[in-house]
C-alpha cells in the first residue's frame, strides 16, 4: 500500500495556478493579437513548467519495497534495508550506501512550524486549583503525545527510520539505490524554452 507525503500548501497553490493559467490561455487564444499574445503564452508556459517541477511533482512515497523520493528532476528508489540513517532539519535527509545522501523535497519544516511544534510540546502551566480545559479522549491524548514537539517532517522521518530498521531485522537485502530522470518535468521545461524562443523569434 502506497503512502504519499507532499507539501499540501504547495500542492493546493499549484492547482490554483493551473486553473488561473487555463483561463488565461483560453482568453489569449480567443483574443489573439500577435506577438504580445505569444509572449504572454511563453511566460505562462515557463512559469507553469516551474510550478509543476517544484510544487506538483515533489513527493515522498512509501511503498512495500522501499522509499521513493520524487524531486523536481529526478526520482530515487531506496530499498528500506539500504537506508542507514535519517536526519531531519528543515528537510529530511536519508543516508544510504557509501555515504550517499538523498535529500527529500517534501515534507519540509519551516522555522515557524518548528517553533509552533515546540510550543505545542511544552507543558502547559496549570493556574488555580481546578482544571478549566476539557479532558481529551485517550486516542486524542495519545495522538497529541506522539506529535508533541514534532513537525510533520519529524514524524515522516521517524516512519522512514522505523521501516528501515524493521526491514533490516527481517534480513532484507540492502540493494543499491536506483535513480532515474524525470522525463515529464524535463519535457515540460523543454516545451517552455521552445515557447520562449518562439515568442522571441516571431
From TrEMBL:
Q: Where is this region: Disordered?
A: 115-137
TM annotation in the entry: 9-30, 36-55, 181-201
UniProt keyword Transmembrane helix present = yes
Q: Which UniProt keywords apply?
A: Membrane, Transmembrane, Transmembrane helix
Q: Where is the Low molecular weight protein antigen 6 PH domain?
A: 57-93
InterPro entries in alphabetical order: CFP-6_PH
Protein name, UniProt field: PH domain-containing protein
